[in-house]
Amino acid sequence: MTSTSPSGSPAPRDSANARSRKIVLGVAGGVAAYKACHIVRGFTERGHSVRVVPTESALNFVGAATFEALSGQHVSTGVFDRVHEVQHVRVGQEADLVVIAPATADLMARLAAGRADDLLTATCLVASCPVVVAPAMHTEMWNHRATRANVATLRDRGVTVLEPAHGRLTGPDTGAGRLPDPEQIVALSLLRLAGRDLPQDLSGRRVLITAGGTRESIDPVRYLGNHSSGRQGFALAEVAAQRGAEVTLIAGATDELPIPCGAEVIRISSARELAKEIDCRAADQDIIIMAAAVADYRPTVTAPAKLKKTSESAPTGIELTENPDILAGLIAARREGRVPEDTVIVGFAAETGDDSGSVLDHAIRKIRRKGCDLLMCNDVGSGKVFGRSRNRGWLITPDGSVVEVPDGTKLEVASLLLDSVVQITAER
Predict the structure, then answer these.
(1) Which of 159, 193, 227 corresponds to the end of one domain?
(2) Is 22 annotated as ligand-binding?
């Protein structure tokens, strides 16, 4: 198994970036064109060479000088610029990756028709490398049958067309069609550059994913918690949505992360709140992935006011009560028919080795005890995994077989894990 990088940390050097690659960034004429500047920066900070190829209309939003300053390369729009260099062929031939962000409905129509009437469309016809298209348009345009047919055509030809985000559009309108966050586009594009595809193999599937840590209140100010950032759960939601799934993401305490495109996000705080949300939704899901770091215990009593260390109410100890085992409860619900028997349930095990066994020993015992269909095990000792942009570990099946997941970004790990989930669903 392999890997590459999401994350909000600046200039990460990941597996797709072991050497500088030539990236063509196409920019179409939409108001979101200004975000392309951040995409250029995202790629160049990772050590890649970026050639910006805008359409003529894109230059109404961002001037050529801006793109040249950020990329350090000449900007052209037409096939007759620098004819002696045969740009309309060379740019595409030499590219390791083509990313178009934003891609308007008009540009996607021209790409689907095989047009080559400017440098960008000609480049796409020549390119044999991965092509990633990030649409941005009003909701009505995105949902129009002509646009949907063009998207299907492009995907059928091997082009990766990302799902747009939901949010504020031009003017007062809100809906699907917003350009994803630049960091999301960079990360998903690098996933393709690393050889990880985004097939529509989860289309029509309902996927429930939990992410982040839970917080168990001691008083209105303090809580018991853990170091989980939620990055792996969010990466799973991002990849699942881009692979066509209808994603519900139940998130506890997390870092400030971009909302996965197309996902419904439900915020919770405590383990009991998480259990309640899962109880309400589990029966309707095809796949449930329990990536959240759930607190095993909570204070038996939550103080109604802040505990003062100088008062008689100052605690000398905190009595704890065990939280419900949500994963075990899901397995029981499936066994009892309250969750469909073909629902795939994936657990996570954040482990450290000790005198009673290694990380893997503990994880194998856990999957045998819990009875889930797949378990992702992480060694979380010494500041590993939690809060990091990268991950590694093992995928374990109920029969005890183990597949190593080597070091990679959390998006890549998500892609690999979902490959295994798709295989399990295909066998049912």
Answers:
(1) 193
(2) no
pLDDT by residue (tens digit) across 138-196? 999 999 999 999 999 999 999 999 999 988 887 787 888 999 999 999 999 999 999 99
Rounded-to-integer distance, Cα 69 and Cα 347, Å: 47
326 in a labelled binding site: yes
- Residue by residue, DSSP assigns 286-323 as SEEEE-SB--SEEESS--SSPPPTTSTT--S---EEEP
The domain containing residue 53 runs over which residues? Answer: 18-193
Please tell me whether 308 is known to bind a ligand.
no
Counting residues of the chain whose pLDDT is more than 70, the rounded percentage is: 93
Confidence class for position 10, pLDDT limits 50, 70, 90: very low
| Residue 9 placed within a domain | no
**Which residues belong to the active site?**
226
Residues 247 and 349 in one domain: yes
What is the domain-level CATH number for residue 106?
Answer: 3.40.50.1950
Tell me, yes or no, whether 297 and 272 share the same domain. Answer: yes
What would the pLDDT profile of 35-71 be if each residue is shown by its tens digit?
999 999 999 999 999 999 999 999 999 999 999 999 9
Q: How far apart are CA 260 and CA 35, in angstroms?
A: 17
C-beta separation of 271 from 298 below 8 A: yes
- Residue 210 is part of a domain; what is its CATH number? 3.40.50.10300
- Report the chain's terminal Cα–Cα distance, integer Å: 23
